[in-house]
Amino acid sequence: MGGLTMDQAFVQAPEHRPKPIVTEATGIPLIDLSPLAASGGAVDALAAEVGAASRDWGFFVVVGHGVPAETVARATEAQRAFFALPAERKAAVRRNEAEPLGYYESEHTKNVRDWKEVYDLVPREPPPPAAVADGELVFDNKWPQDLPGFSFRREALEEYAKAMEELAFKLLELIARSLKLRPDRLHGFFKDQTTFIRLNHYPPCPSPDLALGVGRHKDAGALTILYQDDVGGLDVRRRSDGEWVRVRPVPDSFIINVGDLIQVWSNDRYESAEHRVSVNSARERFSMPYFFNPATYTMVEPVEELVSKDDPPRYDAYNWGDFFSTRKNSNFKKLNVENIQIAHFKKSLVLA
Ligand SMILES: O=C(O)CCC(=O)C(=O)O
Ligand SMILES: [Fe+2]
User: Fold this and answer.
1) CA-CA to 18 of 20 to 30 Å: which in 134, 188, 211, 258?
2) How many domains does the chain have?
């Protein structure tokens, strides 16, 4: 199913293979955002919860987020309809190296192939093409034209994206507040955003002991808002002991993870958590991450208010468009060089 055939390209090195016994994550914070809808002074308490979760886990689960269940249901219906198309119709909207949006079934994470197929789209007017270090980045949606009822499904995905954007800005504000920044301090980075939505389909895998749906990685953007179905498979590396633990699906929730940009902006107060996706031989799984990303021209560096003589910036500034494009290309095919990471911009601080 899903057109994938198990071969050597999918096989993880022994140290990265999932263990046969799954450890359920206990203690990943569950945060109820419903106080945001009420007027009153609950915002500071919520910001403190989001701050603690971002510091201790880099991951949290939100409920009471205000996204209507029907909006999610319509988007997931569109997702299932898309992946159910015959392979050649999906191939007609396949992405290529210069145009990163569309269908793809051969993503690599850290040079090992992932057991999945994806469809990427930008949820709003695509940002203008941008010159980046390795060429040009062109964001153009490839909507399947001939999918019966797809205009309706396209609307469903656009409606979902709008709901995600609202939630993303609320979370960004809570994060800014938790860092004692002005509530809209980080908003300006998202004017010409390069946010995209990914529809993920993980078909049943004959060798779930050897392959992964997505290999271990950290999300490069600011925040990820993930919808997952009830199958389960998302594993997070627990900060306290480095163990891989499974994030249990919670109905009507989203999983939020702090990406590399928040790690850099916060000068390491918060950390982008490593995660991966395990697959199984019995059930296909669907998930839908919303990657909240800034404009290509953003220079990423610790925010001024969070550095001082005693706490100097821990990163050199880097350009988001270049980073994003380099990472995208290395996920497109197997390369013989290491994947770009924010660690490459980490300063070696000389401690006095
Ligand atoms: O499918 C999932 O649960 C997570 C996917 C993921 O980590 C990603 O696409 O970056
Ligand atoms: Fe991820």
Assistant:
1) 258
2) 1
